[in-house]
Amino acid sequence: MPDLAALFARQAAASAHAQFVYEVAAGRVVFVNAAGRALLHGNPDEVNAALPALLARLHPDDRPRLVEYWTQWSEGSMRDEVEFRLCRPDALDQWFCLTPFHERDADGAVWLVGALRDVSVTKRYQANADLFNSRKNATLEILSHDLSGAFIMVQQIAQFLGEEVTAPANPQVTEMLDILENTSRDSVKMIR
To answer: How far apart are CA 126 and CA 128, in angstroms?
Structure first.
């Protein structure tokens, strides 16, 4: 059987996602893989020195939820993934998904292990799709309102002419007015 610790260490080193191990009692990161460089914009060996600057980049709207999450994670009661944003100088927020793991060793030390995936592209795509859908829905609502108004008008004219024409010269006129009225009524129902 292969050395599992070495196998997992190689996997973490090769991963495109930032992976880290945090020792709660010492209040320090004891491991971060090479992918952590992109997150930290620097050297993963200096992660503890860079940690305050990284935490300062947390989006203000996400901070209260992350404080609660951190407390639960430190106690071992949080296992769900969480998404959060980091502010960037170019004004585009960077979205991450954190997959947590909590471990208490035989000596009672608490270790928080996490993997961070950058989900910014997915979030921007979803925001763009939501914006497109809201514009589409607003346009369809305006069109349906205007179109149903026109069909209601045609329906009312057909009803009026049907009541006013008592003996048309052509018997098809009454039939055509009925078809026009029914088609307009059905069109209004379909639009609504």
So the answer is: 5
3-state helix, strand, coil in the chain (%, to 5): 55, 20, 25
Q: Convert the pLDDT of each residue in 104-140 to its tens digit.
A: 988 889 999 999 999 999 999 998 898 988 998 888 8
Q: What is the DSSP string of 137-149?
A: HHHHHHHHHHHHH
Query: Would you tell me how many other CB atoms lie within 10 Å of the CB of residue 6?
Result: 9
For residue 118, the surrounding DSSP H or E stretch is strand 110-118
Beta-carbon count within 10 A of 163 CB: 9
Q: Report yes or no on whether pTM surpasses 0.70.
A: no
CA angle, corner 54, sides to 65 and 110, nearest 5? 65
Strands of 28-32's sheet, edge to edge? Answer: 28-32, 18-23, 110-118, 94-104, 82-86
Q: Are 58 and 66 in contact (CB under 8 A)?
A: yes
Structure tokens, 145: 């309102």
